[in-house]
């Protein structure tokens, strides 16, 4: 269906300033991002592994490689990188809100457990900031806002999972807090193309710029042309 013309009339437009931009990697953990652990293992034991094939294929084949490219750029240029995890701190997940506790417990997403760790290939470097949340939005249950402000950041680039849950919520919270937001189309993933595209379409409406990894890197890289 064609969108009415006014839907894109007020979409965000801004240029990326590398010095004031942070890459925020959201929930790329074994609990829901590794087909052999957490959710993947649970579904396999139930004979339902095929139901998550799209999710894990996209994570392995699209998200991890593209997030690696973004991390490599930020790290090589001294850019700001923040990792967000979700999960409980209490062993019985009693510190998690009721809408989050069931999936946290089902996937053993408890601090200190292997499922809580960030997936292989995207592990934080020494000294990189990792903030753990118990809510879908990262601003509600972490010090993300005060951390970004201390770092002098006014723009966030969000990647990770799930596009329609934690990525979208964090991105919208950031926008309401007056950060400029870029959501990376091929650096985010969820459970189906329909969910992915519907969420990206929604985020383009007022909340964020939606760019590909190539587009983000092109904007962050100074032009080599001379006048």
Q: What does this protein look like?
A:
- With 227 residues, the protein is an alpha/beta fold.
- The protein is built from 8 helices and 6 strands.
- A 6-stranded parallel sheet has the order 3-2-1-4-5-6.
- Strand 2, helix 4 (101-106) and strand 3 form a beta-alpha-beta unit.
- The longest helix is centred in the N-terminal third of the chain and has 24 residues, at 53-76.
- It starts with 20 loop residues before the first strand and ends in a 7-residue tail after the last helix.
Second-tier CATH architecture? 3-Layer(aba) Sandwich
CATH topology: Rossmann fold
Our estimate of the beta-strand percent is 15-25%
Distance between the termini: 45 Å
* Biggest sheet features: 6 strands, parallel
Secondary-structure element series: EHHHEHEHEHEHEH
Number of helices: 8
State the strand order across the main sheet: 3-2-1-4-5-6
Count the beta strands.
6
CATH class: Alpha Beta
Mind telling me the CATH superfamily name?
Isochorismatase-like
Write the layout of secondary structure elements.
Elements: E1 21-26, H1 30-33, H2 38-45, H3 53-76, E2 80-86, H4 101-106, E3 129-133, H5 144-150, E4 155-161, H6 163-176, E5 180-189, H7 193-204, E6 209-211, H8 213-220
Parallel strand pairs: 1-2, 1-4, 2-3, 4-5, 5-6
